[in-house]
Amino acid sequence: MPATRRKARDSEAAHQPLLPEMSVEESGGGLAKDRSSILLLLLLYVLQGIPLGLAGSIPMILQNRHITYKEQATFSLSYWPFSIKLLWAPLVDSVFLKQMGRRKSWLVPAQYLIGGFMLVLSSYVKDLLGEGDDHVPNVPVITSVFFALNFLAATQDIAVDGWALTILFR
């Protein structure tokens, strides 16, 4: 193909939209049909943000307990699951139970495990954070627990992101 025709073709393609424009009637939806799906997604995103919010408050609590910077840096490892979730995202997208469905196979267990972790954590939070005069916060255990919570929340995030692409109208 001559260079002039290739340039003309490339410039035409650059000015075309990636998705064809469609009216609300053609797309079969709009906000009205997506309202319940958006509310469900909002709920799921809020639920997966709870462990992140709790983990965000732990460094301040540890600092008030006069923990060293090295131990505070150790706790920052608990945020890694969200940074490296792309490593297990293909697994979440490809492995599922047909009875539950592609996304629910990961959403339901992740939510139950997050809830279970948080219930167990609520029983031991004073011991782990070193409440009292003679107790010292157990940073390795706190880091491990929040790493597991963030791993579950990141797994749920993968599933919810994939689900959002399938349940919302165009």
From TrEMBL:
| Ranges annotated as spanning the membrane | 38-58, 78-97, 106-125
Molecular function in Gene Ontology: acetyl-CoA transmembrane transporter activity
Q: Provide the GO biological process annotations.
A: acetyl-CoA transmembrane transport
Protein name, entry field? Acetyl-coenzyme A transporter 1
Query: Which terms are listed as keywords in the entry?
Result: Membrane, Transmembrane, Transmembrane helix
Q: Which positions are tagged coiled coil?
A: none
Q: State where the protein is found.
A: Membrane
Predominantly, its location class is membrane
